[in-house]
Amino acid sequence: MREAFAAVALAVLAPGAFAAPTAEELEACVQRFPGDRAAERKACFEALVSPRPPAPAVVVPAARPPPATDLAPGKEASASQFRRLWGDAKERSAWHAGEYHGNYFLPAFRAKNPNLAPVRAGEGASPLLLPTERQATEAKFQFSFKGHLWPKDDRGRHDLWFGYTQVSHWQLWNGDASRPFRESSYEPELLYTYEPPGLDWAGWRVGHFGLSLNHNSNGQGGELSRSWNRAIAFVRAEKGATLVTLRAWTRLRENGIDDNPDIEDYYGRADLQVSHAFANGVQLSATGRHSLRSGTRSRGAIQLDLSAPLCRQAWPSWLCVDSLRAYVQAYHGYAESLIDYNHKDSYLGIGVSIGESR
Q1: Residue 334 contacts by C-beta under 8 Å, 6 or more apart in sequence?
Q2: Which residues of the chain have pLDDT under 50?
Q3: What are 131-140's pLDDT values in tens digits?
Q4: Per the residue annotation, which of 126, 169, 185, 215 is the catalytic one?
Q5: Where does 195-320 show beta strands of DSSP type E?
Q6: Is 126 one of the catalytic residues?
Q7: Domain spans of the chain?
Q8: 290 is known as an active-site residue
Q9: Residue pLDDT, tens place only, 283-324
Q10: 75-354: CATH homologous superfamily?
């Protein structure tokens, strides 16, 4: 075994150039060249301590930056209206509820010419309400939310949502008539959305495309009943602090009595909303709606919504509620409510809102 000891000694004396053989490797040489095959055995030992090439370096690939279409959480995500309202595609989870069309309470909402004959178009417009039953100033509030219906891992860039919006007009200041709720509408909705990867143009980024099935009714009967179903196609796009939502719909006809066969000619067949968030926290939104018809069937409406933060840095913390904002709404045109879908008027309201919309 002198040859083996010599090989080990050479590796120890020159560790930078030689690698020490293992006991198993030395034993293999002895077993392969036993007895008088000393010369071959020596050559085997020398081969074990010959210079060996260094192990190849392991190259770790650098982390790839996130795609430009997926805003990372943090400052970028919070600066995006679309991400604040619809979330990050990588982080959303099932059953997570959030704002949809906005949540507000307007204790003072005034109509210029209150509708005292809320009947369907084409019928006799004899007054159904007395002036004492329909005051010009009332309260209006809206409650709206949306949530996912299946987990992110299963859907990729596809989403399925459930949305619900309720709008109520309350004769809050009409003590003589016992302060009744004049009108409430209920709008459940099933939505499908798809976020296209990297669909940009001239600084605009498309957030998603979508389709929805929408039911809207006021839960009343007889001449005051209003109800219809729609299939709605929509797209949302964003540029800086401006978010645009375009929707177009078609009515889904039902069998039986139609409460409002001409509602599309008054309520409209499409709408466009443009919303801008200013650096000081003020938000301005303009929504236009139209029947997409000409002549006597050309009708529509426009709505302006302005909100501003109520809390200031100098205010005591107990006076501040997160997302509580001063809110002003102005409306002109047809169909401010379902009950008045064929009545044209101007409205102005003031109150508070919580969160954002659309």
Answers
A1: 266, 267, 268, 299, 300, 301, 341, 342, 343, 344
A2: 8-17, 63-77, 122
A3: 667 899 999 9
A4: 215
A5: 200-201, 204-217, 227-239, 242-252, 270-277, 283-290, 300-309
A6: no
A7: 2-48, 75-354
A8: no
A9: 999 999 999 999 999 999 999 999 998 876 666 666 677 678
A10: Phospholipase A1 (2.40.230.10)
